[in-house]
Amino acid sequence: MTNDDAGNKPPPAGITSNVPPTSQADSPTNTRRCPMWYGIAADLMVAIHVAYVAYVVLGQLAIVIAAPLRWEWARNPWFRLTHLTAIGIVAYEALYRLRCPLTVWEEQLRELAGQTFAGSETFMGRLLHDILFVENMPEIAFTIGYCGMALLVLQGLIMYPPRPFRGWGRSEVVPAVA
């Protein structure tokens, strides 16, 4: 090997890289080497999002069916409180035009995977994404739907109230041992 005028050695023959061997390119934690895992994580995020929506919609359907039949499980205060909270969060985000964090995280994971937002590479990812996101709908339609659902859940709380939490509102007297 001969040096050039500046004293630099020419690159070795064959395939070369401009990344020094001490860089993180060879690290197992390098994010550019595992785009498949980001796509799977994005699909998982969509599945969680669909489960959240199903909890709100199917939960309300179950309450509407259970109320006239007087099924006690539908009066569970934890179920009713989490159900109201779930749709309350969605209605709040819609009214204040906040983006859903689950959607934002999915977009970020798809970007890291090198995919478009609507372009999962798996069948289940595409299916769940298409169930959840409706194209060409005005934003006001979603806001009205979310707020309407929140009012429906609130109306269900009033007409078919949950039972009190166990131990709340009761003052149990413990008899003294003689």
Q: What does the average pLDDT come to?
A: 81
Tally the helices: 5
- Taken from the alpha-carbon principal axes, the silhouette is elongated
Beta-strand content bin? under 5%
Low-confidence stretches: 21-29
Q: State the separation between the terminal residues, measured CA to CA.
A: 102 Å
Q: How many beta-strand runs?
A: 0
Helix-strand topology string? HHHHH
Determine the fraction of residues in helical runs and give it as a percent range: 55-70%
Query: What structural class do you assign from the helix and strand content?
Result: mainly alpha
Radius of gyration based on Cα positions = 28 Å
Indicate how many domains the architecture comprises.
1
For the largest beta-sheet, the strand count, sense and barrel status come to: none
